[in-house]
Amino acid sequence: MSADGSGHVRLIGAPLPHARAWRSDDPLRLEGGDVLPRLQVTYETWGALDEDGGNAILVCHALSGDSHAASHDADDDPGWWELLIGPGKAIDTDRFFVICSNVLGGCRGTTGPDFLRPDGERRYGAEFPTVTVRDMVEVQRRLLDHLGIDRLAAVVGGSLGGLQALQWSIDQPDRVGAAVVIAAAPRLSSQGIAFDVVGRNAIRHDAHFAEGQYYDGPSPEAGLALARMLAHITYLSDESMRAKFDPTRLQPRAIETGFESVFSVGSYLAYQGERFVERFDANSYVTLTTAMDLFDLGEGPEAIRESLAKSRCAFLFLSFTTDWLYPVEASQELVDALVAEGRPVSSCIVESPAGHDSFLLEESMVLGKQIVAAFLSSQIGETGPIRVPEEPETDEPTSIFYTNRLDYGLILRLMPETGSVVDLGCGNGELLSILRDRGHAPLLGIERDASAVAESISRGIVTVHADVDSGLAAIPDDAYDVALLSQTLQSILDVVGVLREIVRIAKRGIVSFPNFAHRPLREMLQREGRLPKEEGLYAYEWYDTPNRRFPSILDFQELCTTLGIEIEDAIYIDSAREAEVTDDPNYHADLAVVAIRRAER
Amino acid sequence: MSADGSGHVRLIGAPLPHARAWRSDDPLRLEGGDVLPRLQVTYETWGALDEDGGNAILVCHALSGDSHAASHDADDDPGWWELLIGPGKAIDTDRFFVICSNVLGGCRGTTGPDFLRPDGERRYGAEFPTVTVRDMVEVQRRLLDHLGIDRLAAVVGGSLGGLQALQWSIDQPDRVGAAVVIAAAPRLSSQGIAFDVVGRNAIRHDAHFAEGQYYDGPSPEAGLALARMLAHITYLSDESMRAKFDPTRLQPRAIETGFESVFSVGSYLAYQGERFVERFDANSYVTLTTAMDLFDLGEGPEAIRESLAKSRCAFLFLSFTTDWLYPVEASQELVDALVAEGRPVSSCIVESPAGHDSFLLEESMVLGKQIVAAFLSSQIGETGPIRVPEEPETDEPTSIFYTNRLDYGLILRLMPETGSVVDLGCGNGELLSILRDRGHAPLLGIERDASAVAESISRGIVTVHADVDSGLAAIPDDAYDVALLSQTLQSILDVVGVLREIVRIAKRGIVSFPNFAHRPLREMLQREGRLPKEEGLYAYEWYDTPNRRFPSILDFQELCTTLGIEIEDAIYIDSAREAEVTDDPNYHADLAVVAIRRAER
């Protein structure tokens, strides 16, 4: 057995020509109490550090990744996040100094189970201590100290990398400007843990496991391959597996394999499993999946908020619709906790058929890349519109968010001169941008259309991807000076719930809506006997209108009274004449902009 | 090694005191071409066969079941479907003669891998030929021949048992009156197959597998336990695992186990795995899961219809909302295929948190039991209302299905005297019951409320659980003489789609709806400036009405013209005066009942 001074013996898998190793004899006490007397960290960097050191981004890798996140030149192998990192890319190595290191417990050059124990007698093997995501972050912190980086502009990661980004925000609040947390959750579900448990049991029950001391003989390849096959299923989605394997269900790929190869999906998994054992160590697999399973910011809003209480940075969360390992709802719990704490948190739920692996795939990251790019740019003070891809036309009422913004001016008239604002249904962030320019802060946009969310984030607006109908519960009482609901009332099913939320979360609500009792509408029903239509938000046919509610000014006033909501101020407009209406607005006005607040105050 | 004449060596697991074994030396040629020269089938029966033999029900078991479906007396062990089978239960052994046999390839007394090969030298082991669900059914058919049962009133099963019930309907169309197919699908998803593949690979890579000839030594217990642990995850749901394990995530149960026991879910799976190996044979596990994976009625509507083309029986499908192994959508594909063929098919999608295992659980089968009982009763000519459990009040527009049935009489006036009818939004089947009594046939109800579906089935009405907005595509052109849409138009989002479907699937559509241009409604908007209300279907507030559309008679007429739909006949009613309106019905009538058809005919 030959080893270098660090205890590192051999690298499993492809060589890492651009990686450097940093070694330290400073003992590391782990969260679980064990001590590692010395440490090696293998890392790669891209780009150059600014003189003020303000442009450093730490990229954290997922379970099976390593320091090679991207290629360094044209001759280099592509990295695992080639799609995101490089000159001119979302994590722009022309502007940022990017660092990626192999995690503690990994098997690609950082201290892990394949390293010699301090006594030099044998490898750690299965005796490598339990490490946590917190331990991984501490090792990265030491590496940054060594590199002379005081502060990160951002820490970015997906899956296990996302958990590290979260942990950075909590453990090193003064050293992180922003965290980009992709496909992650406060904790793995019991179902997710269960799959990991079966995988680890398969490794440990492999006849070659030898209690983890297999390095000099045959290794537990079958067990590790089984664990990988199983995990691989959880990285895909039911939908993507259908597309990939159903057409050729009984036509296995022509591969040499010791595993079952009856079904096409079986031959694919066999291939994935057998390739994986060539580049990964079984003990590392046990170590890293255990760290993922132990990561736990708590159950329920209170616990998660408490866990995140120390964080100070800006956040961006990306989740993917078909990810069932770290699902959208779990990512949303993190967003809600940060919203509850009034932190600057943006989020986007990205439509993708590709499941958990979406963050690694070019085709699933089209919007995600742009959002990450815009978010990171805004962290160094660069904002501006980004190109959002065309989306197919939809029947969803979302589209009406983009029309009839004539009421902005009226809303501004009812706004206080300063103060914080939440815009419910903020669209592309246009109104909030105007308010920012007028000095309002902090600002939060809530929007349910993904492309609009992307555009809003690109304007530098903190924007949460959520439905106004259900997404306001996380916002604390009186959190904002003003809550805006601009031309959205008529598309909301739970009108009562949303109005109650508006006066709960803000000192003043400003609600604009089209008046269904406007004179021409009344006359149309009276004279023609048809569901009334007129230009603007009621310009739809009875059978396909996206409107769900048909409020008149009087209806709205009466409902406010019923709900104990006071109307403080109002502007009623006849838009055709571009005139304000004071005489019987329920008859003469087609647009109402109303300022409301809780009556009991 | 000692064996009886059948080649059967020992029974794995608990004894079966009430089981009988039938042996045959009639060779069985399997679907895959192999021949089993002799056969043993272990089975149990409950109840007594009628003189005319018309009351036999075959119950088919799932992967890990056996012939012991229910206890035979108070001293007997409970069976795996104790909740459904017994005196006075859904499968009522006071009325039905119930048979359940261990499947071909099983390990509980029917010929399988644990049997001696014909040469008597050794067990079949892994050399036991591939069997299919069709082979299982053929063995059951032979057993019924032996028992002198010409025809089954019904064949009933869940999961693998449901696949057998489907196969019975196809292979023995003249011998099956009805099939109850629970938690099943035309084929397992690629994701589902993938989990089975990993499980089988775990068994085959166990050091004790010995190419399947492990019977005289240690058996591949770890591999089988791993397979079971993994499969068990797929039988539960994410939701049920959260409830069961999240509160005690890091508190494993105090069990002795050779498997990882760090997380509570891990200790639970370890226990499940280790108990399973005491009662199941690894080779059987491979055999039966392979049969499930190979079961394939095809992909897409055409293929599935073709597979089911030979079936002649009545069908009942139950599926469960959180079942992700044989999900609701897959069960629905079978329903759609049979609807497309005009077969009498009923279905219910049962709300249950318990995943695939729901069909085995008392608490998930409350409604399911009643539906099965009602369906089986109707098969022997007994129908009547069943007790449907109270459901919590819901804001869903469903509730309006149960009010305002005053239009029944008017609908009957526009009905032809005979002919077939599909009722879209049939509620509890009341109107269809009236039509049945008037001699209309065949009848189909479509309803989206589960309790109403149960009640409708209990009336003996063929009822599919589906949404009118999306569930009509399977019905062929001109399949019915009449399609009814009674007071449902105002709750439908896709009005155009549904109207087009009505005139596509039926020669005549009869649509009743409340008139939004009724005089008092017009006047209310005109005079009061509020969203109009009046008694009946428009008796809701603007902010919480379940109505999604507000059609007037004129609006409806104009839309029909636009869509190329001809209005053949109509009745307009002023319900307050209980009088028919002929003068300006759009002004004077509050209810319209309109007969429509495609104009081009």
Keywords summarizing the entry:
601 residues, 8-stranded mixed sheet, alpha/beta, 17% strand, elongated, Rossmann fold, homodimer, Rna Polymerase Sigma Factor, Chain: A, 20 strands
Please provide a written account of the structure:
The structure is a homodimer of 601-residue chains. In chain A, strand 13 (421-424), helix 12 and strand 14 (443-447) form a beta-alpha-beta unit. In chain A, strands 1-4-8-5-9-10-11-12 form an 8-stranded mixed β-sheet, with helices on both faces. Chain A has an 8-stranded mixed β-sheet with strand order 15-14-13-16-17-20-18-19, with helices on both faces. A two-stranded antiparallel sheet of chain A has the order 2-3. Chain A has helices at residues 133-147, 160-171, 190-204, 221-235, 238-245, 264-276, 282-294, 301-308, 328-340, 366-379, 408-414, 430-437, 450-458, 495-505, 519-528, 553-563, 585-588; strands at 20-24, 28-29, 35-36, 39-46, 56-60, 85-86, 91-92, 97-101, 154-158, 178-182, 314-320, 345-350, 421-424, 443-447, 463-465, 480-486, 506-514, 565-574, 579-580, 591-598. In chain A, helix 4 (221-235) packs across helix 6 (264-276). By secondary structure, chain A is of the alpha/beta class. The first copy, chain A, is elongated and about 95 Å long. Among the domains of chain A are: 195-290, Rna Polymerase Sigma Factor, Chain: A (Orthogonal Bundle), CATH 1.10.1740.110; 397-598, Rossmann fold, CATH 3.40.50.150. In chain A, 31% of the residues lie in helices and 17% in strands.
